[in-house]
Amino acid sequence: MSSHREAPEISKDPVADSTDLYAFVSPDHPDTVTIIANYIPLQSPASGPNFFEFGDDVLYEIHVDNNGDGHPDVTYQFRFETKLNDNNTFLYNTGPIEELDSETWNRRQFYSVTKVDGNGKAKVLARNVPCPPVNVGKLSIPNYKKLADDATFKLKSGEKVFVGQRAEGFFVDLGSIFDLGTLRPFQNLHVLGQKAFQEAGKAVNATDRTNVHSIAIQVPIKELVGRSSPVIGVWTTASRRQVRVLHGHSSDDVYVGPNVQVSRLGSPLFNEVIVPMSKKDLWNSLPPTEDKNFAQFVEQPELARLLPALYPGVFDNLAKLNEAKTKRADLVAVLLTGIPEGLIEGFHNDTGDLQADMLRLNTHIKPSKEENRFGVLGGDLAGFPNGRRVKDDVVSIALRAIAGATFALVDKNFEPDEAVAQLSQGLSAADVTAKFLNRFPYLGLPYDGFNNPS
Predict the structure, then answer these.
(1) Is 146 helix (H, G, I), strand (E, B) or coil?
(2) Which Pfam families does the UniProt record give (predicted)?
(3) How far apart are CA 23 and CA 74, in angstroms?
């Protein structure tokens, strides 16, 4: 979660595994949209001497659809190249790294940025842009903030970019949720937990003090939106060449064929908890235009059936929906088409009839002065599922929606169970040790290996 190790095959390929996608109107520059695509999940900060890095053999892309056809109208491509400064040392660095061009920094990464329009016309915006190093420790990296700031660039074309390691900002109690759907704040109500627990428990942020690798880009809104709508759909992908022939030494390997998509992410938790395990790898390989083939799992999600079974007597109204085999038009709107006008006062982010998983953002909705972590469900129209901000509690929002909170929008006769308003994983952004930033790239500085051992 939100898309960490979400499918059998991509869990074996973390370098290409997209973990989280964020898209929001930038609070400090409201004429821009910030998009952050995270990769390489659950990084232990002390993982030297071969620290985590982007793949030179992976094509990373951020796609934006602005006319609702599920095809990208704007794509930003990122390609990487790793260079060694000293071929005769096993060390990542041989002394303090104080600048992006420090001679003591042995293994450096550079990237290019290419913009592709809806007709496939590509323009290289930047080449040989340096990434910052990973956060090894205080002796190796005396001032990480400076290096990260130095690695934030404003391109001539108007975009701002940062590409490198950041602190994991996604908070989730993985240890409880995947233990037969236990939610610690409600563990004593669980069908099995009734005997195991006498009272509610305190949630644990399983992803705290881990790092990710972020591709963050801030783009003027006018460069992303179409002529007829302020709503955009965003997703990220990672692709590998079709064939790799190994020769025993990586520099002699041969890559053949077109790029093949191996990872995809739009809305948080879609592939994680909606798509069945047998189809997860397939979903990762397909474009959003094929998501109509997965609509049945959105209309009648497995988790909606599990909640009344796992918490007997707590979700009786949801159980009646399930028994009637009611198709969840609310979840289809949230995840596949966007929310149309008329359901929520002053808000919509629909993109038409095409069913496609994209992170939909209405760019006319201004940033909130005080964010509510429950987003639209909490009355904050600038939060998920209107895009996604770094502090949005998408796990709790998804739980409440699946439990019936959003079904009341499409069926005025439905009354959500009382427990839905309190349903939560029990975590917030305050449970992330690294402080979020109020400016680009918004995610906190990465944890260092010396002070955060595995």
Answers:
(1) helix
(2) DUF4331
(3) 14
pLDDT 10s digits, 341-369: 999 999 999 999 999 999 999 999 999 99
* DSSP letter string, 353-421: S-----EEEETTSPPPSS--TTGGGGT-TTSTTSSB-TT--HHHHHHHHHHTTTHHHH-TT----GGGG
Residue 369 φ/ψ, nearest 5 degrees: -70, -35
What local confidence, expressed as pLDDT, does residue 242 receive? 86
Total-model pTM: 0.97
Give the separation between CA 25 and CA 139, rounded to whole angstroms.
37
Domain boundaries, the chain: 10-172+207-431
Contact 284, 10 (CB under 8 A): yes
- In 3D space, the residue among 300, 292, 326 whose CA is nearest the CA of residue 410 turns out to be 326
User: Residue holding tokens 């890559």?
Assistant: 255
CB 267, CB 385: distance < 8 Å: yes
Residue 441: cis peptide before it, omega within 30 degrees of 0: yes
186-212: pLDDT as tens digits? 999 999 999 999 999 999 999 999 999
In 14-82, which ranges are continuous DSSP H helix? Answer: none
Residue 382 burial class via C-beta count within 10 angstroms: exposed 0-12, middle 13-18, buried 19 and up: buried
Q: Confirm if 376 and 344 have CB atoms less than 8 A apart.
A: yes
The per-residue pLDDT for range 84-136, each reduced to its tens digit, is 999 999 999 999 999 999 999 999 999 999 999 999 999 999 999 999 999 99
Using alpha carbons, select from 391, 266, 374, 239 the residue that is nearest to residue 3: 266
What share of the chain in percent tops pLDDT 70? 99
Mean pLDDT of 282-302: 97
- Region for residue 54 given its phi and psi (left: phi exceeds 0; alpha: psi -120 to 50; beta: otherwise): beta
Kindly provide the residue ranges of all beta strands, DSSP E only, lying in 98-230, ordered along the sequence. Answer: 107-117, 122-130, 152-154, 160-167, 211-220
Structural contact between residues 76 and 23, judged by C-beta atoms closer than 8 angstroms: no
What's the pLDDT at 324? 97
The pLDDT of residue 51 is above 90: yes
- Tracing tokens 């399983």 back to the chain, one arrives at 206
